[in-house]
Amino acid sequence: MMASVVGGSQCSLSVLLRRGGGLRQVLVRGFSTHADKPKADCSKTKLADHQKEVMKRGLPRRSKIPNVSNVIVVASGKGGVGKSTTAVNLALALAEVDNCGVGLLDMDVFGPSIPRMMNLSAPPEIDQSGMSMGFLVEEKAAVVWRGPMVMSAVQRLLLHTAWGPDLKYLVLDMPPGTGDTQLSISQLIDVTGAIIVSTPQDIALLDARRGAEMFSKVHIPVLGLVENMSVFCCPKCGHQEHIFGQLGVQRMAEELDVDLLGEVPLNLSIREGADRGRPIVISECSSPQARSYFNIAAKVSQKVAHLKTK
């Protein structure tokens, strides 16, 4: 690509070349043949500022979802740590704590679970503040898609769903890991912040740390960490046992300089409520387990309000 030619008594030619290939040597020999005193500078140079601007124009711009004030992603580094259960109960708790409209979007294209947890088996009605890939495929059907198809589905679920009216929060239940869906969301929309869910287990913490680093790279603030399955309390004798370890998430929160939003115990009623489509914050709203989610929701609300004042 020819960048500039300056005329007059002296001629200057700047050419942008791909790495490798023999075109550089061909150009130098050509100048040597046709110029009296050729002076070729073949050093590697950085792209000029205006050229960088031209390249930036082709990058996707983040969009604001109509009728949605804040987008909160609930993520985890690995599966099986209770991320979807946390997302469902957090969305319901935010609606109660802030007395506001809250939407819930299941972004796990390959393994949607929100329809079962929210007892939603039919396609959404026009006034229903929830959306999932699970509404579009049969519950037992396997979704076998390549990356571009996943990114297209993410875009349609996010931007082609009629959210509202006037949702204060849209909670996204993310798939585990740091793949196409996470990257697509970071490029497509403005995200208020991320919540990372992990158990205290060392292996889970390693993956959670990767998730935090990923959000840092795409400039999405981490609102805090949630320690799920923090402790098991025997329903018969009341003895508490830290099955997956103790204080691991708290230590990681200190290392990452983020808040520990709360701890949720390993409890049978949480699992049964999710399986029945009656989340714990609805079925047993006065229980200690439900209060854990309400406390987390209150802290999230405070963090979002603080971010808005910056």
Automatic annotation (TrEMBL):
GO biological process, one term: iron-sulfur cluster assembly
InterPro entries on file: Mrp/NBP35_ATP-bd (IPR019591), NUBPL-like (IPR044304), P-loop_NTPase (IPR027417), YlxH/NBP35 (IPR033756)
GO molecular function: 4 iron, 4 sulfur cluster binding; ATP binding; ATP-dependent FeS chaperone activity; metal ion binding
SUPFAM superfamilies named in the record: P-loop containing nucleoside triphosphate hydrolases (SSF52540)
Keyword field: 4Fe-4S, ATP-binding, Iron, Iron-sulfur, Metal-binding, Mitochondrion, Nucleotide-binding, Transit peptide
GO cellular component terms listed in the entry, alphabetical order: mitochondrial matrix
Cofactors (names): [4Fe-4S] cluster
Cellular compartments annotated: Mitochondrion
Family: Belongs to the Mrp/NBP35 ATP-binding proteins family.
Job of this protein: Iron-sulfur cluster transfer protein involved in the assembly of the mitochondrial membrane respiratory chain NADH dehydrogenase (Complex I). May deliver one or more Fe-S clusters to complex I subunits.
Name of the protein in question: Iron-sulfur cluster transfer protein NUBPL
Gene designation: NUBPL
